[in-house]
Amino acid sequence: MGTGASLPCAIASVAGVIVSAVIAQRRDDGDSNLHYLDSLELFGEENAADLLDDLHPSGDGYVRMGERFYEKVFTGTGAFAV
């Protein structure tokens, strides 16, 4: 596909920095139940080939995001790992 993912990824990256800072402050203030997962860890610019129209993921793209979400949240040191 094209390079349409570049701008949305750049915006998400900047937003991620801001949100991460707010979350870090809240956790420092004692909210240990607050977690943040940057969406670019699930689906980033390197996955642009999985965008049907340079914006919306294909079926394979959604599967990839779901697998990565599960791995990051429910396994290892994820927020809901058992």
Q: How would you portray this structure in words?
A:
By secondary structure, the chain is an all-alpha fold. The chain has one domain. Helices cover 48% and strands 0% of the residues. The chain is built from two helices and no strands. The protein is flat. This is SGNH hydrolase-type esterase domain-containing protein. It comes from marine metagenome.
Total helix count?
Answer: 2
Describe the global form.
flat
- H/E order of the elements? HH
Q: Any low-confidence stretches, pLDDT <50, length ≥5?
A: none
Tell me what portion of residues adopts beta-strand conformation. under 5%
Overall pLDDT score: 87
Task: Please state the oligomeric state of the protein chains shown.
Answer: single chain
**Structural class label:** mainly alpha
Domain count: 1
Largest sheet: none
Number of strands: 0
Spell out the blueprint of helices and strands.
Elements: H1 6-28, H2 59-74
Question: What is this structure, in a nutshell?
Answer:
The chain is mostly helical and 82 residues long.
Entry keywords:
single chain, 82 residues, mainly alpha
